[in-house]
Amino acid sequence: MKLAHLGHSTVLVTTATSRILIDPGNYSSAWHDLTDLDAILVTHSHPDHIDPAWIPALISHNPQARLIVEPSVPDVVDLPGAERLAAGQSVTLGRTTIHGVGGRHAIIHRDIPQIGNVGLVIDEPGEPRFFHTGDSLDAVPTGVDILAVPAYAPWCAMKEIIDFVRLVQAGRGFLVHNAMINELGWGLAFSRLNEMTDTRFSDLTDQQPVSWT
Q1: How does pLDDT run across 3-13, given as a tens digit for each residue?
Q2: What span, in angstroms and rounded, lies between the C-alpha atoms of 103 and 190?
Q3: How far does the chain reach from its first CA to its final CA, in angstroms?
Q4: pLDDT tens digits, residue range 71-96?
C-alpha cells in the first residue's frame, strides 16, 4: 500500500488493485489534477472534506471512478451517481473492501447541529488495514495497521487524540486535518503522539507517496 497525504484531510491510497482518493476538500489543492482514480470517498459534507467548487472537475477527470460518500453528503453537494455509505455498511471495489464506521461528526459546540460522519477502513488481502477517521474519534475498529488521525480540530483536544490513538492500537500512523495549525503546532502534536502512544507516527507533509507493508 502507498499513502500520500495531499494536504489537510486529503489522502491518496494506492493498493495493488485500487487507487482511492479520500476527502478532496477546499483546504488543499494537490488533488485537483489527479486522474486514474478508481474511487473518490467522502467522510462528511464539510467543505474542507469535499470542495463543491472543484469536485465536478475531479469527477469529470475520473469518469470511471465510483463516488462513495457519507449518506447526507449528496443532500448538501450535487453529486450525480453518488453511492451512499453509512456506518456499519461495506462496499467492494475489486479486491478492496471499504467499511464505514462511526456515524456522527464530533460535537463542535452544543449550539451547532451534529452532522453525519463515516470513518473509512480500507482492507485488501495482503495489504495493511488503513483507517481514516474523518471528523470523529468515536469509532474504534479492530485490527488497524495504519491510522490517519487529526493533528488539530475545533472539535477535539490533544488529550482526546492521544487517548483515541491508544485505543485504536495501530502500529503506525500519520497526521491529517492540519491546515488550521502552523508548523509549531504540527510539531507539538507529532512529538507528543510519538512520545505518549505506542503508534509510530511518520511525517507525510511533503505529499509524496510512502510505501507501507
Answers
A1: 999 999 999 99
A2: 27
A3: 6
A4: 999 999 999 999 999 999 999 999 99
So what's the architecture of 2-211 in CATH?
4-Layer Sandwich (3.60)
74-100 exposure pattern, b = at least 16 Cβ within 10 A, e = fewer: bebbebeebebbebeeebebeebebbb
pTM of structure: 0.96
The pLDDT of residue 189: 97
DSSP H helices, the chain, are: 55-61, 158-168, 183-196
The Cα 35–Cα 33 span in angstroms is 7
Q: Residues 210, 202: contact at Cβ < 8 Å? A: yes
* φ, ψ for residue 19, nearest 5 deg: -125, 110
CA dihedral 157→46→75→71, nearest 10 degrees, is -50
Distance CA 73, CA 41 (A): 11
Number of neighbouring beta carbons within 10 Å of residue 157 = 10
Q: Per-residue DSSP letters for 75-118?
A: GTS--TTPEE--TT-EEEETTEEEEEEEEEPPPS-TTS---EEE
**Residue 67: Cβ within 10 Å count:** 22
Which residue matches cell numbers 503508534?
199
